[in-house]
Design goal:
Elements (H helix, E strand, L loop, with lengths): L1 E5 L1 H5 L4 H15 L4 E5 L6 H4 L8 E4 L8 H19 L3 E4 L14 E6 L3 H4 L6 H17 L2 E4 L2 H11 L6 E3 L14 H11 L5 E5 L8 H10 L5 E5 L5 H11 L6 E4 L7 H6 L3 E4 L8 H8 L4 E4 L4 H5 L4 E3 L4 H13 L1 H15 L4 H17 L2
Parallel strand pairs: 1-2, 1-4, 2-3, 4-5, 5-6, 6-7, 8-9, 8-11, 9-10, 11-12, 12-13
Length: about 375
């Protein structure tokens, strides 16, 4: 069957929605090569991101033509005029991988599915500009209403879709996401040493991976670091935002300048080494749609400490430790508990790996294809 996808995030987003989009196309094309996968891009984007999906005969790229290839009209094509190209290329299904589907799609007779990642902008409006919140709410809600089925990336997201958009529960399927295979493979010792030297990484360190923004709550770990009896290094990897200045201010006030490394623009192929050389992984985010860095950390052999209050228990499982995202004393106690007990750390890793086996690529691909078939067969 021919399946169409909104592919903008594949070539435009290095993390988050981009990782999800590339992941879905790769597992589907690997395990179900009998289908044709049509990727609709508003523009070429970044070649190195598109290159993360290998060229295959059953994957075809489509771009706007004529007037719609001009920069100003590309977003209009993606939201509206793409339906003309879809009718011409005749897919049986359209999958909006990043919270939206084109307007007018229902009138084409093409069935549709939308993946909703989170509704954080409703739960935490203070983290988003006014105009963005209203655009997101309009687009996401319309996509949920107009699509034939919805894929939620966590049970938490499913509950939010039902609560905020009043969508019937039977319309929503929860399908989790796995992580890139590179995190499941042991990085060679020479590569680790190369990365260690490049970023001056110490022998023991706590790791955080994620944008350095207020919602992600890195400040909690910094404050906990100042409470630890043992001097331990913190390595934070992620895109920096204005919130980073607040984090730096606290680092200075707590005299932790020699214990904290803030790293940005790390090449993707170096991340597995940074994970695998760490001692503990922390993810103190106030709210997430799922929490892929936790899956990456567990596959990398790390005990995980995450925040309570969203869906992180779904990604980390029952054997990770969860703390109040507003209580640095709880975070400090959790870190000290793992550092002082090697047997506990080992058990957390073993049980964590057993838990994340449920995010197997083949299993997830099968779940998605099952939803596709159910959608196509529906009235």
């Amino acid at each position: 069957m021919k399946i169409a996808f909104d592919a903008k995030r594949i070539s435009h987003n290095a993390t988050g929605l981009g990782n999800y989009s590339r992941y879905i196309i790769n597992i589907l094309s690997n395990y179900h090569p009998d289908n044709q996968y049509q990727l609709y891009f508003p523009s070429k984007g970044k070649g190195k991101l598109r290159a993360q999906i290998p060229e295959k005969q059953h994957i075809k790229d489509f771009y706007p033509k004529g007037l719609y290839s001009v920069s100003f009209f590309k977003s209009f094509w993606r939201s509206w005029n793409i339906t003309k190209d879809l009718k011409q290329n005749s897919p049986v299904l359209f999958h909006g991988l990043s919270n939206e589907i084109p307007f007018g799609l229902k009138g084409t007779g093409i069935k549709s599915i939308v993946t909703i990642h989170d509704l954080i902008f409703i739960r935490y409006p203070q983290f988003y500009p006014w105009i963005d919140r209203h655009i997101y709410e309009y687009k996401f809600k319309k996509a949920c209403q107009k699509s034939n089925r919805i894929i939620a990336i966590s049970e938490m997201t499913k509950r939010d879709i039902i609560s905020y958009f009043h969508i019937p529960e039977e319309k929503i399927e929860v399908i989790y996401q796995g992580c890139d295979k590179s995190f499941k493979q042991t990085v060679p010792a020479d590569k680790k040493q190369e990365v260690r030297e490049k970023y001056s990484l110490p022998d023991k360190y706590i790791l955080y991976v994620g944008s350095i923004e207020s919602r992600k709550n890195l400040l909690l770990v910094v404050k906990a670091l100042g409470l630890l009896k043992e001097k331990v290094h913190l390595v934070a990897v992620g895109r920096q935002t204005p919130y980073t200045e607040l984090v730096k201010k606290h680092i200075q006030e707590l005299q932790l300048e020699q214990q904290v490394s803030l790293l940005s623009n790390i090449p993707f192929d170096e991340l597995p080494a940074i994970y695998q050389m760490a001692t503990i992984f922390t993810y103190p985010s106030l709210f997430e749609g799922f929490g892929i860095p936790i899956i990456e950390a567990i596959h990398s052999g790390l005990p995980v400490i995450a925040a309570k209050g969203s869906c992180l228990e779904e990604s980390g499982g029952p054997d990770s430790i969860y703390v109040d995202p507003h209580n640095e004393h709880e975070m400090c106690k959790a870190i000290e508990c793992i550092l002082a007990n090697k047997d506990l750390a080992k058990e957390m890793v073993i049980k964590g790996k057993e838990y994340v086996a449920k995010f197997d690529d083949k299993m997830i691909a099968e779940q998605i294809i099952k939803v596709y078939n159910k959608t196509i067969a529906s009235e």
